[in-house]
Specification:
With 458 residues, the chain is mostly beta strands. The protein has helices spanning 6-23, 452-455; strands spanning 26-28, 31-38, 43-44, 56-57, 74-77, 88-93, 95-96, 98-99, 103-110, 113-118, 134-141, 146-154, 183-189, 192-197, 203-206, 212-216, 219-220, 223-224, 256-258, 264-267, 274-275, 280-281, 283-284, 287-296, 301-310, 317-323, 328-334, 361-367, 378-384, 388-389, 403-404, 411-418, 421-426, 444-450.
Length: 458
């Protein structure tokens, strides 16, 4: 076989690589444009009307779930690691006041101000009975690296719009708690806040003053999607195996995007649905997938349209979703089992290093216009959140090096700031996540990224 001249060989290689790139996802680089943090220890006083029970929080986090009143008596243990060798996070419960921690959703308001949604409390119904549900208005100072809480709004149901009994049923204000809902995503729709929940899964409509206007059930084409925590599943059968539900517990509407015209919401399930036929999570060609639904804001009903999103690896989850244009969007896809960078060691029983360092933490650009015959949206390109370019050395927390890492277990919230910038926020799972610094609970970090390369990816 004759040898090709070098110029012709180079041309051939370039053409071959371009073909490969056209059929595969492209990794592009994001550039750090700003960084700020709200300390993990940030708390807010509960409203007086909520009563003395909420003057402290985290009283039900002991291993046996029994009430513990002594402040700081329960050590925070990282979710990531060998349970036989617990790695302390440096945080502790119970605490005085309500913890602002755990941002699970974020909306840009302009001028470096954001709405930030606090998660359900401490991770489950059982341990979040004394955690009030809150939305905060915060402001980032990128130069100083600080985040200031400007206002906190507590969610409440005085008009009894919630269709089931809540924790504070017998009170006038009826403040909502982490045993009632698990709020994970938020959008501004007209003069209302629409909040995606994992327990139902439901979508809550609330006023900017925090009052519930309604709860939208997940019914698509006459079929209801419910999790084990849906109130209709409250009466379990006498024996396991007869219970019916489709969505995984804590696998509801973690992400929820909004169309640019504000007329349509796109709730997305965090985990795959359960396939009752195969007795496993939904799979396609060996990969698990989840679903994106379509919710009309005016009628408050779901259309029959759905899209599928394929995960790259089993165990990955969808953490947030925002639209870039009428047909393209951004999805946080991450693993749910790694955190940390820097002092890394092998996956072994040690507590002085990160045994399972941050691995799969990405933001994907997806394209609805290129949905395939099976209903899967195209994954166009992605940025790796463990490999962010930092040429201007703008990091304010952690190492300020050429490559910046978001090492958290849960990069959880994403909002579009302008045509080429997004802000990401981590759910710090206080006091359980400790991915930035060994022995210290994670702060809520707001990270401003220039994603021009991702936006422009064809």
């Amino acid at each position: 076989m004759p040898c090709l001249p070098l110029t012709r060989l180079a041309t051939a290689l370039t053409l071959a690589l371009s073909v490969i790139g056209a059929s595969a996802q492209t990794e592009v680089t994001a550039v750090l444009a700003g960084h700020a943090a709200l300390p993990a220890s940030t708390t807010v006083e509960a409203p007086k009307a909520a009563g003395p029970f909420f003057e402290t929080a985290g009283k039900f986090n002991a291993a046996n779930r029994q009430r513990t009143e002594v402040l700081g008596s329960i050590d925070g243990i990282s979710f990531v690691g060998d349970p036989k060798y617990p790695r302390k996070s440096g945080g502790a419960l119970p605490i005085k006041g309500q913890s602002v921690q755990g941002f699970s959703g974020i909306v840009s308001l302009g001028n470096a101000e954001f709405l930030a949604l606090t998660d359900n409390g401490f991770g489950s119904k059982l341990n979040s009975q004394d955690a009030l549900l809150m939305v905060h208005r915060v402001k980032a100072d990128w130069a100083k690296g600080t985040v200031t809480r400007l206002k906190t709004t507590f969610l409440q149901d005085p008009d009894r719009k919630v269709p089931f009994a809540i924790q504070n049923e017998a009170t006038t204000e009826r403040f909502l708690t982490g045993i009632d809902f698990d709020p994970e995503s938020i959008q501004i729709v007209g003069d209302e806040w629409w909040i995606g929940d994992e327990f139902g899964p439901y979508v809550l409509r609330v006023t900017p003053q925090g009052k519930v206007l309604g709860v939208v059930e997940t019914v698509v084409g006459g079929k209801a999607y419910r999790s084990p925590d849906h109130y209709m599943n409250g009466r379990l059968p006498n024996y396991p195996g007869d219970a019916t539900f489709e969505a995984r517990r804590s696998g509801g509407f973690e992400p929820m995007a909004k169309s640019l015209d504000g007329k349509t919401l796109y709730p997305m399930l965090e985990w795959p649905l359960w396939d009752a036929t195969t007795k496993t999570q939904e799979m396609h060609k060996g990969k698990p997938y989840t679903r994106i639904l379509e919710l009309d804001a005016a009628s408050k009903t779901y259309s029959t349209r759905q899209w599928k999103y394929a995960f790259e690896e089993a165990g990955n989850v969808a953490a947030d979703f925002q639209m870039l244009s009428a047909t393209t969007g951004l999805v946080i896809e991450r693993d749910d089992s790694t955190e940390g960078s820097g002092k890394v060691c092998k996956d072994e029983p040690r507590t002085d290093c990160f045994t399972r360092p941050a691995k799969f933490k990405r933001v994907y650009k997806i394209d609805f216009a290129q949905t395939d015959a099976d209903g899967f949206v195209k994954k166009v390109a992605y940025i790796d959140l463990t490999k962010i370019a930092n040429p201007q050395r703008l990091a304010k927390v952690g190492p300020n090096e050429e490559t910046f890492v978001l090492p958290h277990l849960g990069p959880e919230g994403l909002t579009v700031v302008d045509a080429h910038h997004i802000v990401l926020v981590n759910d710090n799972n206080f006091p359980y996540s400790s991915g930035r610094t060994l022995g210290q609970p994670d702060d809520n970090e707001l990270t401003l990224l220039n994603i021009r390369a991702l936006v422009d990816a064809p």
